[in-house]
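Q: Convert this sequence to structure tokens.
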Amino acid sequence: MRVSENESRLMDAWRRQLAQEYRHLCWLYRVQLRPPLFEIREGQSRAGSWSPGLDTLSLASWLIRDHSWDVVLEVLKH
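A:
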């Protein structure tokens, strides 16, 4: 599936915002964790998943598109 340039820019913006939110949560909870690689996936059935060997946190595109940012942050926290 080919992603349009606008969709690609939108996903890049989402990843940047997720990284910023992650840093803020680490500061808020006073934990020092390495930031993961954030991946936005199309067609993913789970809201989010963690790949420990790759240090990758994947979030479903439908989660970000169809739900409020507060819901996205709750998934990020878990």
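The chain has a mean pLDDT of 93.
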